[in-house]
Design goal:
This protein is α+β, with helices and mostly antiparallel strands and about 160 residues long. Helices cover about 50% and strands about 20% of the residues. The N and C termini lie far apart (about 80 Å).
């Protein structure tokens, strides 16, 4: 029995190999592009959900206090980025927790804010938020300002490293 020479098929095997490698590399590139766009869509979805929740809370509070013109109606935390930049998701989570902590000011008179602002500043001085997107952060209130029934709070955020136990 006679065996055919393999030399005749080397060229076809080489072409099949290059096609297979091209398909694998093309699939990897396509998958990386797909994951990048999916990550952007997921981030946008999270941001829009956060905006929707905040808008619904603001509408509810504004309707509650719409006839009272000298009370704080909403809180806007502003994070100062002095050291390393924060992750956008961690920044959103910190803002959400700050709003929850400062929500006691909603409905209070803007003329009596000085009594409670010092208390809040002492309460939130070097407060540590644990478990924000896998990290711990220490915040310090820098400035508190009330303008147009909105309490604006500027805070400094530093990544907190736990001391070894």
């Amino acid at each position: 029995m006679r065996m055919p020479y393999f030399d005749r098929f080397v060229r076809y095997v080489r072409y099949c190999f290059f096609m297979l490698m091209g398909a694998i590399i093309g699939a990897a590139v396509y998958h990386s592009i797909f994951m990048s766009s999916y990550d952007k869509v997921a981030q946008l979805n999270y941001d829009l959900q956060e905006q929707l929740e905040q808008s619904s809370r603001d509408i509810e509070l504004l309707n509650k206090y719409k006839h009272q013109h000298t009370v704080i109606k909403s809180i806007v935390p502003i994070i100062l980025k002095e050291e390393e930049p924060l992750n956008e998701l961690a920044e959103a989570e910190l803002k959400k927790r700050l709003k929850e902590d400062l929500s006691v000011f909603i409905g209070t008179s803007i003329y009596q804010i000085d009594d409670n602002a010092e208390f809040a500043s002492k309460l939130l001085k070097d407060k540590i938020y644990v478990g924000v997107r896998g990290s711990d952060y220490r915040i310090t209130i820098r400035t508190v300002l009330v303008a147009d029934n909105v309490l604006q709070v500027w805070v400094r955020v530093v990544k907190y490293e736990r001391p070894p136990a």
